[in-house]
């Protein structure tokens, strides 16, 4: 939550975060399926409940200034983003073997959110298919490391609106093909200003960055049409 509050305070109008389903069908903001790196403890995240995770320290790994920062629930994060007017790119991040369940639960949680405020994304086609079946009106995007040869077929099968690809793996001609096919194009994770400018010049619609100090909320403003 500290990160969400910081990004909103800086003027960013969109965020990306990972959502994982845990024991008892709780949904929490979590990247790793194992404790020990960003959240204190040992063992599998999916075996704990949201209440058990909430009392663990999820901030000290980053800085002592954030010691005691709790693991937020998705409901808590979504409420904040809606109140702050911040768009949510919600990555469905299943623990191993829980792709369909996680996709269904995340889609259910997003089904009642106002349209235009959330996009579901995932590396898991299985999770996105479950999301499609559960809440087809909530838009979806497929995450990939490298662009697969059958990217168009994959997006069509999932009724996806966008493709999210690792920035270092995208070539200009690929970007042109994706945009020409009518899909949105998003790149991650871009922490270099020159690279960000090059991607926008290629036709990329949006990027994800960790360097809020180098790539600010008004870094790219589309030229006015005169």
Number of alpha- plus pi-helical segments: 8
Helix content: 25-40%
Helices and strands, in order, run as HEEHHEHEHEHEHEHE
Q: How many DSSP E strands?
A: 8
Radius of gyration: 18 Å
| Principal-axes shape call | globular
Q: What is the distance, rounded to the nearest whole angstrom, between the alpha carbons of the first and last residues? A: 41 Å
Structural features, described:
This protein is 32% helix and 17% strand. With 226 residues, it is of the alpha/beta class. The radius of gyration is 18 Å and the shape is globular. It has eight helices and eight strands. Strands 2-1-3-4-5-6-7-8 form an eight-stranded mixed beta sheet.
Keywords:
alpha/beta, 8-stranded mixed beta sheet, 8 helices, globular
Could you give a short description of this structure?
32% of the residues lie in helices and 17% in strands. It is of the alpha/beta class and 226 residues long.
Secondary structure layout:
Blueprint: H1 2-10, E1 14-21, E2 27-29, H2 50-54, H3 74-84, E3 87-92, H4 99-110, E4 118-122, H5 125-134, E5 140-144, H6 151-157, E6 162-166, H7 172-180, E7 184-188, H8 193-202, E8 206-207
Parallel strand pairs: 1-3, 3-4, 4-5, 5-6, 6-7, 7-8
Antiparallel strand pairs: 1-2
């Amino acid at each position: 939550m500290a990160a969400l509050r910081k990004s909103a305070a800086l003027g960013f109008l969109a965020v990306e975060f990972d959502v994982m389903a845990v024991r008892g069908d709780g949904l929490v903001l979590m990247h790793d399926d194992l404790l020990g790196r960003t959240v204190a403890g040992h063992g599998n995240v999916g075996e704990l409940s949201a209440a058990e995770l909430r009392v663990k320290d999820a901030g000290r790994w980053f800085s002592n200034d954030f010691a005691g920062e709790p693991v937020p629930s998705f409901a808590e994060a979504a409420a904040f983003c809606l109140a702050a007017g911040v768009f949510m790119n919600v990555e469905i991040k299943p623990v191993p073997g829980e792709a369909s369940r996680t996709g269904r639960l995340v889609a259910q949680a997003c089904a009642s959110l106002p349209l235009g405020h959330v996009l579901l994304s995932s590396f898991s086609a299985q999770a996105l298919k479950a999301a499609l079946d559960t809440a087809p009106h909530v838009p979806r995007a497929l995450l990939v490391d490298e662009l697969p040869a059958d990217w168009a077929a994959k997006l069509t099968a999932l009724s996806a609106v966008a493709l999210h690809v690792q920035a270092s793996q995208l070539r200009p001609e690929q970007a042109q093909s994706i945009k020409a096919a009518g899909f949105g194009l998003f790149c991650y994770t871009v922490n270099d200003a020159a690279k960000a400018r090059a991607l926008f010049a290629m036709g990329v619609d949006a990027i994800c960055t960790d360097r809020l100090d180098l790539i600010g909320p008004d870094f790219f403003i589309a030229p006015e049409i005169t």
